[in-house]
């Protein structure tokens, strides 16, 4: 393997204004206007009916307190109207919840689709510098967190806003002097909530980051259970996981702890306001009863009026309580949205230039002219590398680990572009041809096999979807895997599990080789392609590959020098430079690094 930048879970998040995140999330919501508009309408109707309930309750109490005796018809009329309002409001709330769940799922579907499509456009460098588990957490944990807010908390906010405004209007109509109590308690609640929000937001951002790191480590360890078991490192990785798990739980605890402290404080302030309303309302009622305030006066209030005001004050204070209670959910959702939007804002792989040429009828002439490259500016991997591969020839690349062998392949495939120098395909600068055409001109077999969940046939035909059954079987025969496939329960229709873990590593490699054989690409890249098979199978593959490599320009990276003795040109790469060049016999006569390496393998 070559020197790539170390993978990390995420870069330090850029501070985004909460307003910009709300606007971006709002665009997703408004895009679902056929559901959002009915949701708003149901919110208004449900809350309006809920707000009418206390009015009927107060009227019923005043009818009971009637000086001429209890006015039962009025009492029952108001009680029935109150029940109808609350029951209808409950039904509308249920319908609203169904609409919001449906809308949130559509938004989540669109967001996941955008993130996945964005990941497909990102350069390979992004995946070299971000842990796989962390990337997956964007598609799962982060978007699920956003979903919880959109499906539940958004309804709460919509309801809260209408309830607060409606309750304030009703209280204004009942007793204006008593509203002055909220002139003290509401500003205190708002200021305290705002203060705590600034403290809590970074904690939820840190929580999301830690979850990503934990997922990344778990994914990395689970994919390496064989070597972990072989080296007896289970206790070590368990301790390391425990440490990361503790850090994640610590981040979770800090976020939830500081968020949880908000609700009791706001509840205390609201309960204090209710107490003041009861005291002040009781004084006004007694003064109204003894004739100090006449009916219709600003300070006049009835017992039913006090009951209504208390109920409306609770409706007024309730949403503030609820908002404080779900504020930490919003903080978590904003942090998750920030991480998702950071992915969506990543620079995609640069588009082909407008005058990029199509690469057709490729002959296979590859020229690497004085190329210098480094994954990071402060570290140069390749230094002034020059290589020419004529059509149909095989170029083998050998050298110690980290010398830059795979980096040359990355540049040929334009996974990265050279810092300086030029790569040409059939005389055309690689930078001036379409990436898709260039990559289709190559077929690759890598040391790390990749098979997907599907049949053996599907995995082989992946490189040439219009291939016939006969061509697939011929490719499998050439790769010396046909006998094994036919011995499987369903032959070519046998389903492989994810990454083909239900077959041996050597068999997985043979299937990927069959996939490459099936491709009609004029150029071939083999990166340690036979490293996972036994010596006998390796000889069989080399015989088949020798025939199939004829007419193709081939680049072969190998540690087993027996596999490249017949290469037209062998390049020895050390410290990013080509130190030796020639065929096997020439390099052996030279007596340099290659001959030393060869003799050490066949001593």
Structure described in brief:
With 603 residues, the protein is an alpha/beta fold. It has 20 helices and twelve strands. The strands form three sheets. The chain has a six-stranded mixed beta sheet with strand order 6-9-10-3-11-12. Strands 2-1-4-5 form a four-stranded antiparallel beta sheet, covered by helices on one side. A two-stranded antiparallel ribbon has the order 7-8.
Layout of helices and strands, plus pairs?
Blueprint: H1 18-30, H2 33-64, H3 72-121, H4 124-128, H5 132-174, H6 176-179, H7 182-222, H8 225-230, H9 234-260, H10 262-289, H11 303-344, E1 366-373, E2 382-389, E3 394-398, H12 405-412, E4 420-425, E5 428-429, H13 435-440, E6 442-445, E7 454-455, H14 456-461, H15 469-478, H16 482-487, E8 495-496, H17 505-518, E9 523-527, H18 535-548, E10 553-557, E11 569-574, E12 577-582, H19 584-590, H20 593-601
Parallel strand pairs: 3-10, 3-11, 6-9, 9-10
Antiparallel strand pairs: 1-2, 1-4, 4-5, 7-8, 11-12
Helix pairs in contact: 1-11, 2-3, 2-5, 2-11, 3-5, 5-7, 5-11, 7-9, 7-10, 7-11, 10-11, 15-17, 19-20
């Amino acid at each position: 393997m070559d020197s790539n930048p170390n993978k990390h879970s995420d870069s330090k998040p850029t501070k985004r204004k909460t307003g910009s995140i709300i606007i971006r999330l709002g665009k997703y919501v408004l895009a679902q206007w056929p559901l959002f508009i009915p949701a708003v309408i149901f919110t208004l109707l449900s809350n309006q009916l809920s707000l009418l309930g206390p009015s009927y309750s107060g009227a019923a109490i005043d009818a009971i307190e009637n000086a001429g005796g209890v006015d039962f018809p009025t009492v029952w009329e108001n009680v029935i109207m109150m029940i109808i309002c609350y029951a209808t409001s409950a039904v509308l709330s249920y319908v609203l919840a169904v609409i919001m769940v449906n809308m949130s799922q559509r938004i989540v579907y669109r967001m996941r689709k955008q993130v996945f499509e964005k990941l497909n456009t990102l350069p390979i460098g992004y995946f070299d510098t971000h842990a796989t588990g962390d990337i997956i957490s964007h598609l799962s944990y982060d978007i699920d967190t956003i979903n919880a807010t959109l499906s539940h908390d958004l309804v709460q906010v919509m309801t809260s806003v209408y309830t607060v405004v409606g309750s304030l209007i009703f209280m204004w109509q009942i007793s204006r002097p008593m509203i002055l109590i909220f002139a003290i308690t509401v500003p205190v609640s708002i200021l305290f909530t705002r203060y705590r929000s600034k403290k809590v937001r970074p904690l939820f951002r840190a929580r999301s980051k830690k979850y990503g790191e934990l997922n990344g480590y778990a994914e990395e360890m689970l994919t390496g259970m064989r070597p972990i078991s072989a080296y007896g490192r289970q206790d070590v990785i368990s301790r390391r996981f425990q440490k990361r798990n503790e850090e994640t739980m610590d981040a979770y605890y800090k976020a939830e702890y500081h968020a949880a402290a908000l609700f009791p404080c706001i509840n205390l302030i609201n309960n204090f306001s209710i107490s003041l309303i009861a005291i002040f309302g009781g004084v006004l009622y007694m003064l109204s009863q003894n004739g100090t305030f006449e009916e219709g006066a600003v300070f006049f209030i009835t017992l039913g009026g006090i009951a209504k005001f208390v109920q409306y004050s609770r409706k007024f204070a309730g949403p503030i309580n609820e908002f404080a209670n779900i504020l930490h959910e919003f903080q978590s959702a904003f942090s998750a949205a920030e991480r998702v939007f950071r992915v969506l804002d990543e620079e995609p792989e640069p588009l082909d230039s407008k005058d990029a040429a199509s690469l057709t009828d490729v002959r296979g002439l590859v020229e690497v002219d004085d190329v210098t490259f480094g994954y990071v500016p402060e570290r140069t991997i390749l230094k002034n590398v020059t290589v020419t591969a004529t059509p149909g020839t095989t170029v083998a690349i050998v050298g110690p680990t980290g010398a830059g062998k795979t980096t040359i392949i990355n540049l040929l495939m334009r996974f990265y572009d050279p810092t300086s120098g030029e790569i040409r395909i059939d005389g055309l600068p690689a930078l001036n041809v379409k990436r898709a055409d260039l990559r289709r001109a190559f077929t690759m077999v890598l040391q790390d096999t990749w098979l997907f969940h599907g049949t053996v046939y599907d995995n082989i035909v992946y490189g040439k979807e219009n291939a016939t059954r006969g061509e697939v079987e011929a490719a499998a025969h050439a790769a010396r895997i046909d006998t094994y496939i036919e011995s499987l329960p369903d032959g070519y229709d046998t389903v492989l599990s994810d990454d083909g873990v239900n077959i041996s590593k050597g068999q997985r490699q043979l299937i990927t080789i069959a996939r490459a054989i099936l491709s009609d690409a004029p150029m071939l890249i083999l990166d340690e392609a036979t490293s996972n098979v036994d010596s006998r199978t390796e000889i069989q593959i080399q015989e088949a590959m020798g025939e199939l490599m004829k007419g193709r320009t081939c680049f072969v990276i190998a540690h087993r020098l027996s596999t490249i003795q017949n290469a037209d040109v062998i390049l020895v790469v050390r410290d990013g430079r080509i130190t030796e060049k020639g065929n096997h016999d020439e390099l052996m006569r030279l007596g340099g690094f290659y001959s030393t390496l060869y003799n050490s393998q066949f001593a």
